[in-house]
Request: fold
Amino acid sequence: MTQVNERKGGVALVTGASAGIGRAFALRLGASGYRIIAVGRRRDRLEEVASALPEGQIETITADLATDEGIEAVAAACAREPVSLLVNNAGLAHYGAFADVAARDIAEVLRVKVLAATLIAHAAVPGMVDRGGGAIVNVAGMLAFGAGVPLGPAPGRATYVATLAHLVALTQALHVELAPAGIQVQALCPGIVATEFHSRQGMDLSMLPRMSAEDVVTASLSALASGEVICAPGVEQTGLLDAVQDASLAAFGAQSPMLADRYRAG
Reply:
């Protein structure tokens, strides 16, 4: 399997690169020799990221991944360029009670976190297969495993949590499919990170302990080097993550074509 790490160059395409985790990925990978394709909605922010790297080392694509045009522009770049590392990081979350969130906001979250991430990966994979290797990092979050966690200060987050679970399931399925071709696929699942993500939802989490975006990137790149499929930067006991996967596989293997006794009429 082709291992991807900070000392290996190539082309890295990072979505959501204008701030937070995506910006940290773009700067770290650029500093270590990758040619960067940085994708974001805000041109001024992308230009600020570009100014931190040598001229010619970074290309910016201003695209809104909630639109067909934005997805198509980034997918075209993946098909055109020899992308060796794809970081599907773009995201947003319209928090709110499910009954009250506008349908257009739900659709926007689904398009960015599910449709765009899936289609961009789909565009990048054929080239990776042809070149015999590469890596995809799908930035999800620990809420992928926490759908039943009490809401706390959040009024509701059902759609957002569901998109993270999609990214984890997509990653696990692609790992099974693509590992023989030398392609690594990772679901990056940080907890609360010190970025502007929550403040944009009107939530002040500044008093809570938060991981830095730079530490999240450090964990992800280290996990790629060691072959981890699920990278949870703040989870010390990796056996807990293994137990989740083992339980899922055990439940899958325990199914029968016969109706379970608890559903039979008494």
Observations:
- Confidence is low (pLDDT under 50) at residues 1-7.
- The chain is about 45% helix and 15% strand.
- The helical segments are 20-31, 43-51, 68-80, 103-131, 158-178, 213-226, 238-253.
